[in-house]
Design goal:
- The protein is mostly helical and 171 residues long.
- The protein has one domain.
- The chain is built from eight helices and no strands.
- Helix 1 runs antiparallel to helix 2.
- Bound molecules: zinc ion.
- Zinc ion (ZN) binds next to helix 5.
């Protein structure tokens, strides 16, 4: 799925347990972290094709990023590691579903990479540009707005706090 959809999934799930601003920011990062393997695009199309959807989309990458979370956060260390692992696996699942290559061809996840190149896929997903991805993103935006009203916080809380303040100023 698209990166903003992954980031939004991290925001929504990061609002379930009682976390602080930095932890919620991390949740947004963790939810999109597998796509760091797509940064090869700045080098070449070949690097993108070789690394994307492979190096960051496996259990070892989830383990490494979860261990980093446990190292960074002093409070709720275990919770943050578990949240990171869950969010990265949610990313894998979302990609299996909504990132088909086109013409009904799945884009599988090499979950055991680098130990195995076996690809795992479902055959009932859809393409990246399909309407389902936009509906899912739309539902997530509605939930984000509900959180913004009820909990008075948005994904801007750490990224653009002054902008968020302005949002609530006129109430
Ligand atoms: Zn991905």
């Amino acid at each position: 799925m698209h990166i903003p959809t992954h980031v939004l999934s991290g925001w929504l799930i990061g609002n379930i347990p009682p976390l602080n601003k930095q932890q919620r920011l991390w949740c947004m990062f963790a939810a999109a972290a597998p796509d760091l393997d797509g940064l090869g695009i700045v080098i070449s199309a070949q690097a993108y094709a070789d690394y994307h959807h492979i190096h960051g989309h496996n259990w070892l990458a989830a383990l490494v990023i979860s261990a980093i979370a446990a190292g960074i956060f002093r409070s709720q260390r275990v919770l943050m590691a578990v949240m990171t692992c869950v969010l990265m696996h949610l990313h894998f699942f979302m990609d299996m579903l909504g990132s088909f290559r086109g013409a009904g061809i799945p884009w599988g996840i090499k979950y055991n990479f680098p130990f195995s190149k076996k690809s795992y896929a479902v055959d009932w997903g859809w393409e990246l540009g399909a309407w389902q991805n936009y509906v899912i993103t739309g539902i997530m935006i509605v939930i984000m707005i509900i959180i913004a009203i009820k909990a008075r916080r948005t994904p801007l809380e750490t990224l653009a706090p002054s902008l968020e303040k302005k949002l609530y100023k006129n109430e």
